[in-house]
Amino acid sequence: MMGGVSSTSVRLDCDVLVIGAGIVGLSTAYALTRRSPGTRVVVLEKEPGPARHQTGRNSGVIHSGIYYPPGSLKARFALQGAAEMVKFCAEHDIPHRVTGKLIVATEQQELPRLHALIQRGRQHGIPVRELGPAQIAEHEPHVRGLAAIHVGTTGVADFVAVAEQLARSARDAGAEVRYGTAGEVEAIDRRPGRGVAVRTADGAVVRARALVNCAGLHCDAVARCSGDSPQARVLPFRGEYAELAPEREHLVRGLVYPVPDPAFPFLGVHLTRGVHGGVHLGPNAVPAAAREGYTWRTVRPTELAGLLTHPGTWRMACRHWRYGAGEVHRSLSRPAFTAAVRRLLPEVEATDLRPAPAGVRAQAVLRDGTLVDDFLFAEGPHTVHVLNAPSPAATASLPIGREIARRVAGALAER
């Protein structure tokens, strides 16, 4: 995305242009058409269909919000979004299940953090129950731990199907979704009183009163292309999963998580029975050498150079090198990954694991090396940028879409 595009004409093709057809971008389009019927919305997506990256490459969990500090956007959106997501899935016959989940402490040093999660869950009004080893076995006979909590509002859903339904609902309300070269952004131009003009890879120019940047892994690049200077840079972390061999799937009934490390915004290796069957184990979280770096072999030199020249990358690495080294070790060593799984599921052997598709998380990093742990929005002339949409973004996509639509109202009022 480089160069300029002329916006000498004031003819507008739409009111709001949304870049990105992941679940957040499509929820935004859906919210805009519901908030103000008749609003002309166009969604641009460079892939041939929706939800091809973060939305379609995660564990499919409907998060309860128990991990998130009171008052944070993550807590607010997750607590509201989980119930809304279940309702949305039920209304549109989208596969989903509310299964509850276990958060299991396997070491004494984790017990204070587990008890803190119990208190936080109660602060949020989430149904949580404390479990001892015998009660853990009642829920998950093959899982071992010193203590656990059961979180009743957690579940699983087909988030790709949710995104597809959001796209259909938005189109039914008059929105347009363009895929492939017709949706790949090459240049952006903003001028006072003339809104935003975007040139796509097929040579078309789309003019709008306001732009919403929901580009996920590319959101900071889109922000810079529009003329803004985002405070954060996206550092892609690849989440690597394994799955249990079919004959071993009986070892896991539902969702089982370790007690998370509050110093790092990842949840650790967990066990997830998916909404369509199968049991996923993981993920590791390792730096990727490309924004869409789904394997170690995927390296894009220009993108990698941009990451390595960002001061926040090195400051983050210095701060978290020990944790990161462990993640890389588990990525490169099957015995090490198996050992991480065995903390929760002692019966697992390396031969029980099969490779599964990886995902890449768009983790925003500030110049001082801080990993942004909450949602991060930024606004420029005629523009709203979503610069960090961490888990639970899929769970909370409906209220997030409404929040972005509210912010766009201000951009539409600009002259």
Automatic annotation (TrEMBL):
<comment type="similarity">
    <text>Belongs to the L2HGDH family.</text>
</comment>
<dbReference type="InterPro" id="IPR006076">
    <property type="entry name" value="FAD-dep_OxRdtase"/>
</dbReference>
<dbReference type="GO" id="GO:0005737">
    <property type="term" value="C:cytoplasm"/>
</dbReference>
<feature type="domain" description="FAD dependent oxidoreductase">
    <location>
        <begin position="15"/>
        <end position="407"/>
    </location>
</feature>
<dbReference type="InterPro" id="IPR036188">
    <property type="entry name" value="FAD/NAD-bd_sf"/>
</dbReference>
<dbReference type="GO" id="GO:0047545">
    <property type="term" value="F:(S)-2-hydroxyglutarate dehydrogenase activity"/>
</dbReference>
<keyword id="KW-0274">FAD</keyword>
<protein>
    <submittedName>
        <fullName>Hydroxyglutarate oxidase</fullName>
    </submittedName>
</protein>
<keyword id="KW-0560">Oxidoreductase</keyword>
<dbReference type="Pfam" id="PF01266">
    <property type="entry name" value="DAO"/>
</dbReference>
<keyword id="KW-0285">Flavoprotein</keyword>
